[in-house]
Predict the 3D structure of the following.
Amino acid sequence: MNDRASSGARTRARELLLQALYQQQLAGHDTDELLSQFHDQVAYQRVDQEFFDEALPEILSERAELEKTIDELIDRPLGQLDPVELGTLLIGVYELKKRIDVPYRVVINEGVNLAKRFGALDGHKYINACLDNAARSLRQLEIKAG
């Protein structure tokens, strides 16, 4: 798979991750149930499956820690975030903390695109500001290096 094809598959994996996190927030499904459900979807065949299968369990198992980080970086109570905003920030903060292989600018751009596609009108602006703040906190050395 070339870089362009793999980046598209990674983008689609993030979209599927957001859907899984949204479903988990609303219905309370556990990790195994979500993995099983999403593996059965046709859309799963077109995503970066390794990324999805690694990210979803990690995000869910570390959700409290990720939410604590998000809560320290945002300007409103965590409970005021809608499920799309929270899911997008969970993915973004997870990648900024755990996926050093993904440049911080890509994390921010992908988060903004998720918010544009699935979130409320102008919600992408808030996501951009939050992830930019998170990147400055979590990826200081990468940002300084240019």
Summary: The domain at 3-145 is CATH 1.10.940.10 (N-utilizing Substance Protein B Homolog; Chain A). Residues 31 and 60 are 7 Å apart (CA to CA). The mean pLDDT is 94. DSSP finds eight helices and no strands in the chain.
